[in-house]
Amino acid sequence: MRSFIGRDILSLKDWERAEYFRVFEIADELAPVARNRSNCDLLSDKTLLTAFYQPSTRTRLATEAAMHRLGGHVLGFSDAKMTRAGDFYQESIKDTVHMLEYYGDVIAMRHHQQGAPHEAAKWASVPVINCGDGWGEHPTQVLTDLYTIWKERGTIDGLHFMCIGDMRMRTMHSIGYAMAQFDVEATLISPPEMSPTDEFKQELADLNLRFREVKTSAEAIADADVIYMEPVVQADYTKARVEVTEDKGITPAAYRVTRELLRDKAKPDCIILHSLPRMDELPTDVDHTRHARYWEEAFNGVVMRMALLSLILGAME
Ligand code: CP
Fold first, then answer.
1. Mutate to test the pocket of ligand 1, among 63, 111, 141, 300 (most ligand atoms within 8 A of CB)
2. The domain 139-294 belongs to what CATH superfamily?
3. Ligand 1 geometric centre to CA of 131 (Å)
4. Ligand 1 center to residue 56 CA distance, Å?
5. What's the CA gap between 137 and 121, in Å, rounded?
6. H or E element in which residue 163 lies
7. For the residues 147-163, what does the mean pLDDT come to?
8. What is the C-alpha to C-alpha distance for residues 124 and 312, in angstroms, rounded to an integer?
9. What is the reported pTM?
10. How many Å separate Cα 108 from the centre of its chain?
11. Does a cis peptide bond (omega within 30 degrees of 0) precede residue 55?
């Protein structure tokens, strides 16, 4: 297994199976620190730099919380408009990271341009973590999802995933690549205009992932051990910011998972993950069913980033 020390976390495309389990083990080891709401001093001599060019609630704050739990320092920006990248100068990624690399020991970046963290990693002498790049990928979210499944179901192998929502989404790309490292089957459900691209389907086929596409949640839910959801009432992830419109639209029944559908058709032990934020595809009354696991992900998201930061910065091996 490759060492994590100094590694960029840009994509799950090249992750090996053993690496997932190593990260899960470290997450388990560090979880008591977060569970006890305490901080330790594992990274007390390190600084995390968060460079967020696109809005975030969970990813930025969970990554920053993780660094605080590890005793490290945090600085950064959450609105590029207040930097030179977001004003008259439109400063390039290259010039920006040539600055940032001297202000911290690891850069966590979210960007509306697909590939921006990869471009940053080309120029930065410190590791870069992709916290979501346009429609590209969202590796730390999917590591959190997989860790949650592993904790809740005790395994990932042998499970059937029902992935439902906008297949252009960065989470769907990362989970597609990740699923290929496990003995799983996947059913993909999306509106035609949000369906997986031929290129993505070819990539999944080349990775030997067993997957099929169906048209509605009702057709697939009985097989599902894990329901993995994204909205189809969706923002444009290529934009730095999307303002709210008066009529956002409603989600057709085919792409919703309701309490009634779960009651009538789902396996009793099937679990639901959603990276959030949600729209109407996942009604709030599902929160009070035994299937919901998306709130557990809030805790696991901190623990997962603790594991990644400590591995990348060499405090764990
Ligand atoms: N899951 C996720 O990426 O949420 P945020 O956009 O709030 O970070």
1. 141
2. Aspartate/ornithine carbamoyltransferase (3.40.50.1370)
3. 9
4. 5
5. 15
6. strand 160-164
7. 98
8. 14
9. 0.97
10. 13
11. no
273: Cβ–Cβ under 8 A, 6 or more apart, which residues?
A: 145, 148, 149, 226, 227, 228, 229, 293, 294, 297
Taking the CB of residue 214, how many other CB atoms lie within 10 A of it? 16
Would the pLDDT of 146 be above 80?
Answer: yes
Q: Give me the torsion for CA of 173, 281, 132, 248, rounded to 10°.
A: 120
Q: What is the pLDDT of residues 101-124, one digit of tens each?
A: 999 999 999 999 999 999 999 999
User: What's the gap in Å between 300 CA and the centre of ligand 1?
Assistant: 14
pLDDT for 234 beyond 90: no
Helix (H, G, I), strand (E, B) or coil at 49: strand
The mean per-residue pLDDT over the stretch 270-274 comes to 98
Read off the pLDDT of residues 61-86 as tens digits, 9 standing for 90 and up: 999 999 999 999 999 999 999 999 99
**Which residue's CA is the closest to the ligand 1 atom numbered 4?**
58
Q: Ligand 1 mean position to 55 CA, how many Å?
A: 8
Ligand 1-lining residues (CB < 6 angstroms):
56-59, 132, 141, 275-276
Nearest CA residue ID for atom 6, ligand 1: 56
For domain 17-138+298-312, the CATH class is alpha beta
Strand, helix or coil for residue 226: strand
The atom number, within ligand 1, closest to the CA of 62 reads 8
Q: Whose CA is nearest to atom 3 of ligand 1?
A: 59
Strand partners, 188: 163, 213
Q: Report the amino acid identity of residue 238.
A: T
Q: How far is the CA of 200 from the centre of ligand 1 (A)?
A: 22
Closest-CA residue, ligand 1 atom 7, reads 57
Decide: helix, strand or coil at residue 153: helix
Domain spans, the chain: 17-138+298-312, 139-294
Distance 264 CA to ligand 1 centre (A): 31
